Amino acid sequence: KYLQEDSLSEECKELLSTLPKEKGWIGSYIYKYQGFWTSPRLIQGVIACQQQFQAQDTDIILVTTPKSGTTWLKSLLFALVNRTKHSVFEQNHPLLVKNPHILVPFLEHTLYVDGRVPDFSSFASPRLLATHVPFASLPKSIQDSETKLVYLCRNPRDTFISMWHFSNNLRLDHKDTNSIEEMFDLFCKGVSIYGPFWDHVLDYWKQSVENPNKVLFLMYEEMKENQKIQLKRLAEFLKCQFSIEEEKCGVVDEILKMCSFENLSNLEVNTNEKLSTGEGNKTFFRKGEIGDWKNYFTVEMSEKLNRITEEKFHGSGLKF
Ligand code: A3P
């Protein structure tokens, strides 16, 4: 289903014929639209969302670079924001029976994909939504409203390894995988899903510096190493701080425990079910560790990626 392109409108097909294209990570090709690379279905989804999505001031939108821990952050956000409605001590908490991508849907991948017209009437306020779209290509209403943006990225080495595994996993259904060398070269050239990776990160980093009340910038590594501090930072940014009482009762720890890799990846829903867009839930849980790149990178690969990252982030204050 991920590769399915027969639902593309004539207009979109016409647009694609004018765009630069390169070998795809999952489907045959990815295309460069508004400066970033993505698949045909998602370009159609991005355009629909740019034209139709009306942000509300209370919306919370999670923006991530693909494979940076989106699934984890979705679960943390859901548990955090809804903790009055759904106590994290509940036996039948939604996160125990539904995949985080169902509870916090993607705009362009899910809600606006394949020409769908989303019905937001069942969404509780604040609405929790997600996207991978670069800042400059967000629907204008997101930029113009008080909508909060929570941004998550991850070091490019682990991001690459995770993306390579994920795309090969989806390609496997079609009995075909991509070599690490080939995909590494594409990643370094900026040709990755929603890449160039560095432009995506840098744009949101700048926005978070210029407008810290609008954009919170998080890193997977910091989240893993300082979970409690980062979760409290997130709560403060969203103006739903933990009370002293909640801290005493262990709510912070309970949220972290419920959303841990260990817990989520072993749930029945995340081992056996699929998303409506075709991906098996289990493909979103692989290792969940920092530094798996060391098991795959040659010295040359590591040096090359470091060099690019240093060049691109030079003077920005950003370090991975
Ligand atoms: P790895 O492939 O390195 O294991 P995304 O959700 O953006 O697609 O990112 C997927 C990555 O996040 C995968 O990384 C996955 O294992 C990891 N991940 C998923 N759930 C996690 C969790 N609860 N805690 C930490 N990492 C998690």
Automatic annotation (TrEMBL):
<keyword id="KW-0808">Transferase</keyword>
<protein>
    <recommendedName>
        <fullName>Sulfotransferase</fullName>
        <ecNumber>2.8.2.-</ecNumber>
    </recommendedName>
</protein>
<dbReference type="InterPro" id="IPR027417">
    <property type="entry name" value="P-loop_NTPase"/>
</dbReference>
<dbReference type="InterPro" id="IPR000863">
    <property type="entry name" value="Sulfotransferase_dom"/>
</dbReference>
<dbReference type="Pfam" id="PF00685">
    <property type="entry name" value="Sulfotransfer_1"/>
</dbReference>
<feature type="domain" description="Sulfotransferase">
    <location>
        <begin position="57"/>
        <end position="317"/>
    </location>
</feature>
<comment type="similarity">
    <text>Belongs to the sulfotransferase 1 family.</text>
</comment>
